[in-house]
Design goal:
The chain is α+β, with helices and mostly antiparallel strands and 496 residues long. The protein is built from 3 helices and 37 strands. Pfam families: Flg_bb_rod, Flg_bbr_C, FlgE_D2, LlgE_F_G_D1. Keywords: Bacterial flagellum, Cell projection, Cilium, Flagellum. It comes from Microvirga splendida.
């Protein structure tokens, strides 16, 4: 056995245990570091060729490994921009020079200088911008990602292009509310022929149709919401103008609308019908520069299975909507809508707008409809919200939410072989493999929790135990080196 080999073996052992003590020290000091992954030292033996009569002691080699794939505990915080990944994946971040890295440290805050979201180590969170210029993620690269910065979403107006109007229209509602009959010619004394419309407030789009003495139908269409008395005044004005003939409109003590024949014989029959706008609603939309426009929607019952829908500019009747402003909704025997149910028209100063009514039903229930549309008025961003699927929403002062970014998650085939760098980030190596990019809650990727942070996966008790083991082994190896040195002194003294 070579005494020099004993010395080398002792030094090798002390060096290996020194490396182990180094990882233990690093783990302990980072036991409270967000997203830190524990390091460990693994040993392997190096055996030298020997013979039966002469043994050559070898050495031990050490290799540092990181448990990057192990999930750390998640603790909730009071900051909505703190993000934690539950499951597989890493946040994509960049350093000031733009080089990409992976990290599990999600303690992000808004940088007052640039407006970007950065973590405690100064790395910038990256995401895919949503909207008209949205970029689809590549499965094996980080092309298209950009810093998550909400400053660009403040005070932006978006014109409305799509809306929905859905719910239930009551089944079996009557079509006309006209009552009464004309006084016959043989009546004594003669009374003018009349018909009474027991009508409530008449909404825009309603039609009063009547015929005098069997003549052609005459139709008065209500252009703005009116009471029966106001309708009577408008009909009389139309008679004076010559667009309607043969009647005089009035109201009785109960407010009903009455059409009376003005035929000189006072015996001309008057017949009529009042197509009631049974229900009316409105929808808020926006033009290109963010001006709010109210779209009035009236629904008239035509027959048992048909309604007529009309839309009007409720904000400015002098600037009417253009395009297709009315359509019929036809329902089958089961109350389901037949046909497309989509009404297309143009918003003054805005975009072409599609109102989707495919969610309408006609069932034996109450009138219950809801409407919504896209677009928004200019407003400042007051808050940011993060969804579990990685979508970042800009929350405006008016309460609206707009999807601004979607945060990707990236991983590699062998996460434990990533190369750690300062700032609790990792970069890929040949052993780890290249990037695999996806979104949270997709197959193979975890979800994102807002207002939470992933803690270190270091266990202090385990590290202290490892420290005692390394200290004992280091001392034992130093005794081997010391014994070898003493034997060399004995050998050197033989010559004396």
């Amino acid at each position: 056995m070579s005494l020099y080999g004993v010395l080398r073996s002792g030094v090798s052992g002390m060096n290996a245990q020194s490396n182990k003590l180094g990882t233990v020290a690093e783990n302990i000091q980072n036991s409270s570091t967000t997203g830190y992954k524990r390091a460990s030292t693994e040993f392997s033996s190096l055996i030298l060729p020997s013979s039966e009569g002469n043994y050559n002691s070898g050495s031990v080699t050490s290799r540092v490994r990181y448990t990057i794939a192990d999930q750390g505990p998640i603790a909730y915080t009071t900051s909505g921009s703190d993000l934690a990944i539950s499951g597989n994946g890493f946040f994509v971040v960049t350093d000031p020079s733009g080089s990409p890295y992976l990290t599990r440290a999600g303690n992000f805050v808004k940088d007052g200088r640039t407006g970007n979201l950065i973590n405690a180590a100064g790395f910038t969170l990256m995401g895919y911008k949503l909207g008209a210029n949205a970029v689809d993620p590549s499965l094996n690269s980080l092309d298209g990602v950009e810093p998550v910065n909400m400053a660009s979403f403040g005070m932006q107006a978006t014109g409305s292009t799509l809306g929905t109007f859905k719910g239930n229209l009551p089944f079996g509602q009557p079509v006309a509310l006209a009552t009464g009959t004309a006084t016959p010619a043989s009546a004594a004394p003669p009374v003018a022929g009349n018909v009474l419309f027991s009508a409530p407030t008449v909404s825009r789009g309603a039609q009063v149709a009547f015929s005098v003495g069997g003549g052609p139908d005459q139709i008065f269409t209500v252009t703005t919401q009116k009471t029966p008395a106001e309708v009577a005044t408008a009909i009389n004005a139309a008679v004076t103008a010559g667009t309607l003939t043969g009647v005089n409109a009035s109201t009785n003590a109960t407010g009903d609308l009455i059409l009376t024949s003005t035929d000189p014989a006072f015996s001309t029959n008057v017949t009529g019908s009042f197509t009631s706008v049974s229900k009316a609603s409105s929808l808020q939309v926006y033009d290109k520069v963010g001006n709010p426009i109210k779209i009035d929607i009236s629904l008239s019952k035509v027959d048992a299975d048909t309604w007529t829908v009309r839309v009007f500019n409720g904000s400015d009747p002098a600037a009417p909507l253009t395009g297709t402003t009315s359509m019929e909704l036809n329902f089958d025997a089961d109350g389901k809508l037949m046909g497309s149910g989509v009404l297309g028209f143009n918003i003054p100063g805005g975009e072409a707008f599609s109102l989707d009514m495919t969610g309408m039903t006609q069932l034996a229930g109450e009138y219950n409809v809801t409407g919504s549309s896209n677009g928004n008025a200019p407003s400042a961003v007051k808050d940011v919200e993060f969804a579990a699927d990685g979508t970042v929403y800009a929350v405006y002062e008016d309460g609206t939410r707009v999807g601004a970014y979607r945060i990707p998650l990236a991983t590699v085939p062998s996460p434990d072989n990533l190369s750690p760098r300062a700032g609790n980030v990792y970069e890929t190596t040949a052993a780890s493999g290249g990037y695999q990019v996806g979104f949270p809650e997709m197959s193979g990727f975890g979800s994102i929790a807002s207002g939470a942070l992933e803690g270190s996966n270091v266990d202090i008790g385990t590290e202290l135990t490892a420290m005692i083991e390394a200290q004992t082994s280091y001392t034992a190896n130093s005794k081997v080196f010391q014994t070898g040195s003493e034997l060399l002194d004995v050998l050197m003294n033989l010559k004396r």
